[in-house]
Amino acid sequence: MEIVKLTFDQLMDGWANLEASPTDTGTVDMIVLRPEVEKRKHVTSCDLSTSEGVVGDNWLARGSSSTPDGSAHPEAQITLMNSNVVQLIAQDKSRWDLAGDQFFVDFDLSMENLPAGTQIQIGTAILEISEKPHTGCAKFAKRYGAPARKFVMTDEGKVARLRGVNAKVIQAGTVNQGDSIQKL
Known about the structure:
The chain is α+β, with helices and mostly antiparallel strands. It has a single domain, classed as M1 Pyruvate Kinase, Domain 3 (Beta Barrel), CATH 2.40.33.20. The protein is built from six helices and eleven strands. The strands form two sheets. It has a seven-stranded mixed β-barrel with strand order 1-6-5-9-8-7-11. Helix 4 (138-144) crosses helix 5. It is globular, with a radius of gyration of 15 Å.
């Protein structure tokens, strides 16, 4: 299968035609663990921990360049991206995991719908939406093309959180593919 990276204009047109995601209760469409840098593992269920984030993911061990000591950023424990947006960018579900997020959800992740501090239930776990923005990095541009990064980083894209959202685990629990995600 040949994958074509869309132009900025194609992405903007595609976004204008996307079906709106639910604002109160959505669905977990895909769960991805990152056991090592550049490795992905699709799972149908995972456990969330307040100390580890997604159990089996490398968030804690990988650390962060945005903390003074290089430790994992507590506000970026969990990353979620809208399924419709990643499908538009990736063009095929087999390429969603290249985004590097752990949860792909059919749910409105916009700042308007989920301001920082909002709590959401995903499976039996509870997350809190972080203040820290989830931005498109060089890896994202390499995997999906520079226009995709430009697309998610427009002013409108940032407000809609097209690149996704960071969150932290407030209450441990289990998440299964197909579970609901909802605002509390």
